[in-house]
Amino acid sequence: MIKIGQTAKLPLDLCRGNTIKRNQLAHRLNRKFFNKINKDFNTKDISPEIFEKRLCEITKNKIECTIADSSEQKYKGACRIFLDEDNQNEIAGFSLCIPLNKYDKKVALYDADIFMHESFHFFYEITNPKNLKRNLKAIENNLILKTEEFYKKYLYSKEKFDKKTLEKNILPNFLKTLSKPERIDFLQNSRYRLSEEMQAFKDGAKYYDKIQDNHLDLISEKIKTENGESYNFKKKINLLNRTLAKELQAQRNELKNIFMLK
Ligand SMILES: [Zn+2]
User: What are the extents of the domains in the chain?
Assistant: First the structure.
């Protein structure tokens, strides 16, 4: 089992409390980061070194975080973990993959929606080590391998969806392909992941708007960005919650029946 090293999570006394408290902390740290980085934009772009420095300052340099270029990748951005060089069983820190300009490899103001989305993921991960552990477990026991295609097609997707068909047919049919513990894990992981994405998109859009307003002199026109609405996160999270409750109830009833037979 892969462990999360000290340089990849905040000290426990800083991120105690329930999910809501930890989410608030992640948003607070992201806001702090924005306030710093916002001032660094004297031109339309800043160096990745400054970006990295600001990110590390927020965690008082306790967390390892590096910047990588996502401009040649299929995805716009990502927040990835990296392992300790000497101990491949331990996570040493994070790598924030954000787009860098083609020519001078700098971080552009117009990419603020992406980098503020990814920085939210970073702060969310370091304040929610349990969440990271859950995701690692899903990779290690192959649950991700079995479910990722479905997750991307029906859940983390902008495609139009019919709530009824997804809830009554598509999802139940898919769950049948998984074992009982896998079903619970998949439903739980998915709702946490969607909730994290929903929050990342909100922050991305919010700060995209703000940074442009703050630097009207640097931009030619104000651009709007995806705020997550087209993914229907809320509806899908509710649907997952209902399905999870049903699944838990069914599994409990089954247990009861087994005991009654004895
Ligand atoms: Zn994301």
Answer: 3-261
Distance 190 CA to ligand 1 centre (A): 13
CA dihedral 104, 107, 112, 114 (to 10 degrees): 90
Report pLDDT digits (tens) over 165-213: 999 999 999 999 999 999 999 999 999 999 999 999 999 999 999 999 9
The predicted-structure confidence for 6-46, as pLDDT tens digits, reads as follows: 999 988 777 778 889 999 999 999 999 999 999 999 999 99
Tokens of 122: 């970073």
What does R_g of the chain's alpha carbons equal in angstroms?
Answer: 20
**pTM beyond 0.90, yes or no:** yes
CB atoms within 10 A of CB 73: 12
The total of other beta-carbon atoms located within 10 Å of residue 71's CB is 14
For residue 240, which amino acid is it?
A: L
How far is ligand 1, taken at its centre, from the CA of residue 118, in Å?
A: 6
The dihedral formed by the CA atoms of 26, 111, 113 and 166, expressed in degrees to the nearest 10: -110
What's the gap in Å between 121 CA and the centre of ligand 1? 7
